[in-house]
Every structure is written in C-alpha cells, then in structure tokens.
Specification:
Length: 381
C-alpha cells in the first residue's frame, strides 16, 4: 500500500509535551511542520515550540480534538490508555499504533510478547495477589524486583525485595496492584539500541549505547558502547527482531542487560525516542527526534552516521538545590552541548536537562561530561 507522506506544512500531533515531545517538536518546526501537543500542563516543555491542546492523556475528548487538528499523531509516552489511542487511531494515522502500545504499556503483555518471539529476557512471573508473590519468591529466590504492570518509569512503581519476609511490605508499597516479579540480574553493563522503522519497513539503528543508571534513573550514556562488535551486532539483531515482530512504525528503544557470561537479556522496550538516544542530537547526521518525525510521516529515514564518539549526562533537579545553576563552565566547553527543558519547578530526581559531549574517544567524552556535572554538583552542595 502506498500511504501518502505527510510533508512540511502539514501538522504533527504529539501525545505528551515533556522534554521528548519538545525535542521532536523542535526538529519538526525546523523542517517546516506545524506541531500540536496534548498535555495537561499549558506550561509544559513543548509549549515553547508547539500549540498546546490542554487535557489529560486519559481524556478521549481532548485526544480527539488534538487528532482532528493534525495529519498524523505520534507520542512521547507509552502511558496513554489503550482506549484513548484506539479513538485517535480511528480518525487519524497513529504511529506507533495502538496495538504496539497495548503490547508495551503493560509489563505482563511486554514480557509475554518477548517470550512468544523467543527474545531473551530475565526470569519473571505474573503476580496478582500476595499469595502469588510469596509463592513466586519461594520459587525464584531473592534478590528480586517487583514492578507494577502499568504506569512505572525512571525506577518508579518498583520495589527491590532482598528477603522473602519483605513480600507483604513490597506488595502494599505498590498499592496491591497487578505486578510482575523479576529475578535480579547481576549485570556487568546496561546497553540500549535506538532504532527507527519506516512505514515501508526500512530499519536504521543508531550506535548501540552503554548506559549507567543511578537509583533507577539514567545517569550517563556513551555511544558507541565500549563492547565488541559481536555484542553490538547481537543487540542490533535482537532489537530488529522486536521491531519487526511489533510491526512498529517510529522509534523503538530496546534496553538490555549484559551478563558476566556475555549474554544479552532484554530489560524493557519503549516505543519512542529515549533518554539514551539524546546523544544522537548533535552527534549524528539525523537525531532520534528527526528520525521519529521521518518515520511517522512516511518519509525515508535519514542517515544515522555518527560524527564522533559521544557521551550524555543527565541534569536532575538535585542540581537546582541552591537555585538556578551557573552553566557558564558547560558553555565554555567547546565540544559540549547544553540542553535545558524549560521546566519551571525543579525537584530531586526530576529530569531538567542534559549535557552531551563529543570527543575523540568515548572515554574522553564521558570524562568531560562527568567533570562538567561534578562542577554543577559541587555548586549545589
Ligand atoms: P526499569 O525502569 O525497569 O528499566 O528499571 C530501571 C533500572 O533499574 C534498570 O535500568 C536497572 O538498572 C535496574 N533494574 C531493573 N530491573 C532489574 C533487574 N531485573 N535486575 C537488575 N536491575 C534491574
């Protein structure tokens, strides 16, 4: 089927106006598209660059208002309810589709999908009661991680369980809601592949990234990952298989654990641009945000070629403890880029911005990023 491309001058709709929506909108505006965003907050980050349709993601009326005013709709979050996505899809092309979101937004569905497609993952069990949790812990052992099936991000809605007698507290802490229990993976590293798949099924991936999390939140990314080509190719192969099986159009991020024995296990997938892909903006010919735009508009994908090794470090609200940080040292670094999302209120753990650094080696890029972050952290003490 030949779907007509959505071209500059036409309107892109985005469900969600946080930093991801904002960065997609900036790329779209640069290329001459109009952009509308659905968000409950009229002062959300994307409001600086897009027209806001105010409404909750769970509000079908607001979502339809957005969709009707656009030529194609995409999203920056997987947490829009399926029923709302289905309504949107009824009136306009939604990319990725509601079906993809249904598979990914519920951890049980996602794990079941990986299992059906023989994609490697950590051991897990479905938990719908305290009794099931106690039984699963007896079977799986500790440490383990209990994760609510829906709604979690950045390490939220999940609890680590170190001993069987913590079951009741963990179950209560997550609101006695349906969960999955995962065996704790003693990984040696975390990697991610960010890829784009076009309407025609063309796939292009960015260099596999190597990620470090702190307290469940991404802290640093370097790309390309400092691992053998065999490991990077295996990650690309698994991510490609997932994207094809999902029939996804847009950007897909697949996060992996690398075990001590060199095995790659899929931790989770996100059907969207991702924090670990932020290095692509500035480091690659086409950023993940432009690639998302191209994919959902039915355009050919751009080149993912990377100009130089790169690192990214997140700027969390903790750095705002003593007020607005002094960013001059970051701006004085010739191969660093500062990204601030324009969030009005900073609180600990909130993603406020990030720094990307290009260098001759990934080690050097990471060292510069960490030095700049260290200076900001010092000032916030
Ligand atoms: P998630 O939001 O599920 O990706 O979890 C955030 C971070 O918590 C991951 O990137 C890991 O650093 C850690 N984590 C999550 N699940 C596991 C697991 N099963 N074993 C070890 N670490 C985990």
């Amino acid at each position: 089927m030949n779907t007509p491309a959505i071209v500059p001058g036409q309107t892109l709709g985005i469900l969600g106006g946080g930093q991801l929506g904002k960065m997609i909108a900036i790329e779209a505006r640069r290329m001459g598209y109009r952009v509308k965003v659905l968000d409950p907050d009229t002062a959300c980050p994307a409001a600086e660059v897009a027209e806001i349709v105010q409404g909750a993601w769970s509000d079908p009326t607001a979502a339809l208002e957005l969709a009707i005013g656009c030529d194609v709709v995409t999203l920056e979050t997987e947490h829009v309810p399926f029923a709302v996505l289905a309504e949107v899809e009824h009136v306009r092309p939604l990319r990725p589709s509601a079906q993809v979101l249904r598979t990914i937004q519920d951890r049980y569905n996602q794990r079941h999908f990986l299992h059906r497609h023989d994609l490697p993952q950590t051991r897990w069990g479905n938990i719908e009661s305290l009794d099931e949790l106690v039984a699963a812990l007896a079977h799986m052992g500790t440490p383990a991680i209990l994760k609510r099936r829906t709604g979690g991000y950045d390490g939220r809605a999940q609890v680590r369980i170190y001993a069987a007698d913590e079951a009741q507290n963990a179950w209560r802490a997550l609101g006695e809601a349906p969960c999955i229990l995962e065996a704790f993976v003693d990984f040696s590293a975390e990697l991610s592949v960010v890829l784009a798949r076009s309407v025609q099924g063309e796939i292009r991936f960015f260099a596999t990234a190597e990620n470090v999390h702190k307290d469940g939140i991404l802290y640093t990314t370097v790309a390309p990952a400092r691992f053998s080509p065999a490991i990077r190719m295996r990650a690309e192969e698994l991510a490609t298989r997932a994207a094809v099986a999902l029939e996804l159009v847009g950007v897909l991020t697949v996060e992996f654990f690398l075990t001590a024995s060199g095995e790659l296990l899929i931790n989770e997938m996100a059907p969207r641009v991702h924090n670990s892909g932020h290095v692509t903006l500035g480091a690659c010919v086409t950023s993940q945000f432009e690639q998302q735009l191209r994919a959902v508009c039915g355009l050919p994908l751009g080149s993912q070629e990377q100009h130089a090794p790169a690192a990214m470090i997140n700027l969390l609200g903790d750095l705002w403890a003593n007020g607005e940080p002094d960013f001059l040292p970051v701006l004085a670094e010739p191969r660093a880029h500062l990204h601030l999302y324009g969030k009005r209120v900073a609180h600990p753990g909130r993603k406020m911005g990030h720094i990307t650094v290009l260098a001759d080696t990934t080690d050097e890029a990471l060292a510069v990023a960490e030095r700049l972050h260290g200076q900001l952290a010092q000032a916030a003490r």
